Amino acid sequence: MLTVLKIVDKNNINHPRIDSVLATALAGHEHTTIDTIDGFVKWCQKPAEQRKGSALLFVLPWPDIGVSLAYGQWLNEILNHPHCLADCTGAVLIDGPSEFFTKKKGRELIFIANQAGCSFPGKSLVEATGSLANFNILAQIQGLDNMEAYKKSATDLVEKLLAFKPFDQAKKHKPYILAVHASIYQTSNTLLLWDLVKKALNDRADLEEVSLRNGEIIDCRGCNYETCLHFGENGRCFYGGVIVDQAYPAIKRCDAIVLLCPNYNDSLSANLTAFINRLTALFRKDFATFATKKFYALIVSGYSGGDIVAEQVIDALNCNKNFMLPSNFALIETANAPKSILQCADIEAKAAEMAEKLLR
Length: 360
Description:
Elements: E1 2-6, H1 16-26, E2 31-34, H2 37-44, H3 48-51, E3 55-61, H4 69-80, E4 88-95, H5 102-115, E5 118-119, E6 125-128, H6 136-142, H7 146-163, E7 176-181, H8 189-201, E8 206-211, H9 225-233, H10 242-253, E9 256-262, H11 270-285, H12 287-290, E10 294-301, H13 306-320, E11 330-334, H14 347-359
Parallel strand pairs: 1-2, 1-3, 3-4, 4-5, 4-6, 7-8, 7-9, 9-10, 10-11
């Protein structure tokens, strides 16, 4: 059963564009709509068994003033009930009056819902800026105008959400897990955390590690579409190197990817960013394959900002590259001095919990 969670402010009830898009996207699909915070609170208070398995379409018409009190109330409710979305699946449709905030709020909402237990299919965000200019390329490819492309994207999103079954995949005897990092074992708290997870896995998974420190890493240079497609069809990229020789084959083999992400100035490291950017060539050929693979992250900050990095990973791999986002995908910790990760509260228990998620 599809549940539409429409997050609207009382003084912003008139939003004809997104209502028109919703009418098209929901046509023929039985659904219920919750559009007040009181209604959402009542939904969250239902027994867990009644909420389990719900398909949730978060709909957010962003107000002209750039601030949504309703959005804050809904997030507060989710944060105060950290398991309220356990075993639910979700997608996000957001429409804004300007060129700002749609992607920012969309990925933030996905992150917070994910922390509350919600899983998301690949490319789970459809966002419309005020001008709809973000649909220019898609409309051109599909031979539609921008509004038609927007409606088609929303329709595809609803159908994808309803078809998404993250827990029904056949279990393998041993999952194949790929860890990608660009750190040094002697000094990295992030790699120490990964060691704890590996210890908890206890040979119950086949593991492969790709170090992006092995050889020169060249970032994506923005080849034209035809060039990128040509190399991608052959499982290659124009710039070659460790990403093509080691990472591409490992991604094809794996069931799940774990990104080991130290927080560098509230962002991913340069090598991890280059790795994600360079996935475009492979993505063009294996779009559907990416949708069957999950990704996780171990994020360690020296000071703060782990949530910022988590949202970047979601934006890059789920919203853009079509990887499946499993519930509670990230283990986020703060550790500054070398080996101080080992002093974090309950760190071995947290690592063991992450290991169980990887085996799920």
